[in-house]
Amino acid sequence: MTEQLRSRYDVVVVGGGAAGLSGALMLARARRSVLVVDAGTPRNAPADGVHGLLARDGMPPAELLERGRAEVRGYDGEVTVGEVDAVVREDGGFRVTLADGRDVRARRLLVTTGLVDDLPDLPELRARWGRDVIHCPYCHGWEVRDQAIGVLATGPMSVHQALLFRQWSADVTYFTHTGAPPTEEQAEQLAARGIPVVTGEVVALDVADDRLVGVRLADGTLVRRQAVTVAARMVARAGFLATLGLTAVPHPSGMGEHVPADPTGRTDVPGVWVAGNVTDLAAQVGAAASAGALAGAHINADLITEETRQAVEAYRTGSPW
């Protein structure tokens, strides 16, 4: 049965990950009416645990989110499963329409929809994403320490990624794949750190007994590896914001596309804030949660400014507010 929603909220949070739930918690504790719309497709769902998050290291992502939803609801915040289909301006705020036909009004929006990892089209790679095909050394480095690691070159950050993973293992190999070979400076850095460079296109990952065993090149050569790292192109989930004139743009790092915002999460569109990976492509769970809390506090302050202005106007005219 479709959950019944109120017609109007102070804030609608689009996205129910760490950033969205943290922002909603801040707003609910500020006694704001808040609705979280959660599509239920978190980026870190394939991972066994969240790492580097103080006091929650290793907690399964689903458990972390379930605790977060319970905390938001404990302060009378609402969380519903759904996907936002469209957002338009209406009566000084926004009308938010869900894919199932439900719609609500909001005075402010906090968008925390995260990003999509655009991965190379290689057999087995997507299926092993978050297991032994990984991207972030701070998220997964400890789990693959001292293993034979392969770095699949996919973009401008790949050499940097190889140098990072060298901190966790002395056995790191760099695969140029279809990209350009390392520059002279990069080749020197890789050589100095004992990272061999393998040229030639990678056409598949070899898997045995549900474990990665190697990287297969186009000429049939198998280079044995236990883990592969990929610097995926990261693209913000923000298509529904186009009707407000807000679109994702190339990130200065070249890592993908994000929605720009100021340090508080405020975008160029009045009334719309963003937090987490939709704007900060490299943010881990802790940073995303922190950004969501900060955005929530600033949204509440913005609403207070609006309400104070309205109260002053009413006070001057002697009208009830």
Would you write up a description of this structure?
It contains 6 helices and 19 strands. It is α/β, with parallel strands linked by helices and about 325 residues long. Strands 1, 2, 3, 4, 5, 6 and 19 form a 7-stranded mixed β-sheet that branches. The chain has a 5-stranded parallel β-sheet with strand order 8-15-9-10-11. Helix 1 (about 20-30) packs parallel to helix 2 (about 60-75) and helix 1 runs parallel beside helix 6 (about 285-315). The protein is elongated.
Low-pLDDT stretches are none
Biggest sheet statistics: 7 strands, mixed
Q: SS-based structural class?
A: alpha/beta
Global outline: elongated
Radius of gyration: 23 Å
What's the overall average pLDDT, rounded? Answer: 95
Element string (H = helix, E = strand): EHEHEEEEEEHEHEHEEEEEEEEEH
User: How many extended strands?
Assistant: 19
Question: What is the distance, rounded to the nearest whole angstrom, between the alpha carbons of the first and last residues?
Answer: 38 Å
Proportion in β-strands: 25-35%
Helix percentage range: 10-25%
Discrete helix count: 6
Please write out the topology.
Blueprint: E1 8-14, H1 18-29, E2 34-38, H2 61-74, E3 78-81, E4 84-90, E5 93-98, E6 103-111, E7 115-118, E8 133-134, H3 137-140, E9 149-152, H4 158-165, E10 172-175, H5 184-192, E11 197-198, E12 202-208, E13 211-217, E14 222-224, E15 227-230, E16 233-236, E17 249-250, E18 256-258, E19 272-274, H6 285-317
Helix pairs in contact: 1-2, 1-6
